[in-house]
User: Fold this.
Amino acid sequence: MTKLNYREALRDGLRDALVREPRAFLMGLDVGRYGGTYAVSRGLLEELGPERVRDTPLSESAFVGAGIGAAIGGLLPIVEIMTVNFSLLALDQIMNNAATLRHMTGGQLAVPLVIRMTTGAGRQLAAQHSHSLEGWYAHIPGLRILAPATVEDARGMLWTALMDPDPVLIFEHAALFGLEAELEGAVTPVDIDHAKIRRAGKHVSLVTYGGTLHKTLAAAETLAKDGIDAEVIDLRSLRPLDTETIIASVKKTRRAVIIDEGWRSGSLSAEISARVMEQAFYDLDAPVERVCTAEVPIPYAKQLEEAALPQPETIVQAARKTVGTHV
Amino acid sequence: MQAVQQKAPPMAQTQTMNIIQAVNDALKIQMRKDPRVLVMGEDVGKFGGVFRATQGLYQEFGPNRAIDTPLSEGGIIGTAIGMAIYGLRPVAEIQFADYIFPAFDQLVNEAAKYRYRSGGQYPCPLIVRTPYGGGIRGGHYHSQSPEAYFIHTPGLKVVCPATPYDAKGLLLAAMRQDDPVIFFEPKRMYRAAKGEVPTGDYEVPLEQAKVTREGKHVTLIAWGAMWHTVSEFAETLAKDGISAEVLDLRTLWPVDLTTILKSVEKTGRAVIVHEAPRTCGFGAELSALIHERAMLKLEAPVQRVTGFDTPFPYSLEHDYMPSVSRMRAAVDRTLNY
Assistant:
């Protein structure tokens, strides 16, 4: 067993992919000489050289576009975008090219591109470095969207993503980089087709992903003290959604709370809520609740930032509301 | 009595217009009234716009108020934001909604946040007009319906008229308020939708949905081009004894939840129809909102009839967009639940 944090796990996964697969290479802003804005790729340029770890100019549209070209040409590019906020500059490339080329060429072209980016708030980085826009990307046909919430998933998801023949976006949460866990020696691939039940329970299903998983697990412990036994589902894949696991859990618990760090309106939480209502309408004992980020640009001030985000207390409140006086 | 007289004159004279003419009329009225208003975009000046929505503006108002721009959506919107925060009232055109993504960063990270980030010092009164939707054999790059991305962005308003009357009145109202508005125009109905439109000045208030057909068995919720399809469909349902209420949302965000809930609580059933792909589309938010607030009034789960979760297809576009048979199946599911 080795003790690793989330950042080191991402680096191990990245290094493993680059060493095992000669077609793979990493590119993005400051990923080489600087070692990555979040220090994920530190040491990889020195070890693997500038052909495999490429610093790019500051143009998200250009280096994502180059990644798409490289993928079509037979390579397996791993593109890092510093934060999800900056990915909007490359949105046209991601949605109008990467996501569509297989469809538009009748299957003649595949785009086996992986884009990694940091998402999420909690570090006082304010209105242009803190958002959670993965729910947007989950609206785009042709993409697969992943959100590693644990150290193990941080290490293993990249390889599975790289082996996928279609474009995959991996959202790494900024508040998790220091998270630690004990892992077995080698990098092991992670199942990206299924959500994972991180805590079994019977009274309410708490559905979440990424940075809010740990807040949700903390909320579940608080609820347990009151005799409310919560089931916690970590989605892992945001598109496609593992609806089966969600519905099976809700049919058992008859109540659901969705915790999503994105803004509420038009979010992934809305899609999950709608699916639960559509597929488990008569099984529900209460309307599905959603705990999301307040609909403001993420504030800089620490107290305001905390108030804007889902917190264990707000998750507990929502869960209690669905359970009412029944437990 | 005086108030009634003030309201009456604009309604007195009407003219048959299509949506293009209605938009053009709204722009002319406001540009004549307010020297701060200008239009800008690719080919909006001398050429009068690819769909002719800005025809005649260059000739009447000159090149400083009908500005032809280079082909750079990020540049168009970025420049318009600068104009807006320094006191002008730009109406930018993005030639097709599919081309809005190169400007996405400007819209989401700048326009939508200016008021908040400046503590209210810099409102950003910017209108972005853009034709959206399928049905013109335009393939993926000329057919998408990207409203959900903007609905998810705090700080933006999203408007989508279905009729010439609403197109003119909503655009006039949008140009007279202080926040950024994405104004989606239903390109498939640009010329096909015709109606009597007052020739004078009037406003259709933002954030108000309209019950366009009263009914008692099921509520059909639509907007823009799909509202026309849904309205025709409601008439065929009537022949089978099914009384459908039809809502035209008109402003998608902030959504008029009061009107929606009032209707759904009456009928007990709702079907949402949109062209965009289903997953994380606006239908999901509407469904979640209705369920959260009216669960015990519902006789059946809210249904969604939407585009499929694929890129917009060229040859199969009429199979992709919500069809009468898919809408009928959804209505039957709610009635037989």
Q: What stands out?
A: Chain A has two domains: 2-183, 196-323.
